[in-house]
């Protein structure tokens, strides 16, 4: 019995880490979105980290859930979208409500609790990275 548990351990650890990924020098933490109806814009949050020695930037994102994804530095609708999120080496970029986030403009489907969808992030140097976004009321919930 003890041997079986030890053999299963790598699979358990892998499943627990499935909500984050690393691509080259870029680490993407657990990506999540607040629930939203199609009548309102959605918001996506995730921590980003550049493990490299040179800066990189998130310059765009896209998803089949929406026609437009804006890079937002805050939650005010009257402020213009950001052109990029600069990722300086070894300095994490947190995304959270009322701060840095991705705004999904014109949702094609509601964001229902417990569902997930794909998003493609476009980095200046690292290129395109696809990740899953989990619809939650708060990260991990």
Summarize the structure in words.
- The chain is mainly beta and 141 residues long.
- It is 11% helix and 40% strand.
- The chain contains 1 helix and 11 strands.
- The protein has one helix at residues 2-16, and strands at 21-23, 26-28, 32-33, 42-45, 48-50, 56-62, 66-72, 85-87, 101-107, 116-123, 127-135.
- The strands form 2 sheets. The chain has an 8-stranded mixed β-sheet with strand order 7-9-4-3-11-10-6-8, with no helix packed on it. A 3-stranded antiparallel β-sheet has the order 1-2-5, with no helix packed on it.
- 23% of the residues are buried.
Characterize this entry briefly.
By secondary structure, this protein is mostly beta strands.
């Amino acid at each position: 019995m003890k041997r079986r548990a030890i053999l299963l351990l790598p699979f358990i650890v892998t499943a627990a880490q499935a909500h984050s990924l690393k691509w080259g020098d870029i680490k993407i933490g657990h990506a999540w979105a607040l629930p939203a109806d199609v009548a309102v814009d959605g918001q996506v949050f995730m921590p980003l980290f550049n493990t490299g020695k040179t800066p990189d930037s998130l310059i765009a994102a896209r998803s089949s859930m929406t026609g437009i994804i804006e890079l937002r530095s805050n939650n005010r609708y009257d402020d213009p979208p950001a052109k990029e999120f600069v990722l300086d080496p070894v300095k994490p970029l947190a995304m959270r409500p009322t701060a840095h986030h991705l705004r999904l403009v014109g949702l094609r489907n509601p964001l229902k609790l417990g569902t997930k969808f794909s998003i493609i992030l476009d980095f200046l140097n690292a290129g395109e990275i696809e990740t899953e976004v989990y619809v939650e009321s708060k990260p991990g919930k």
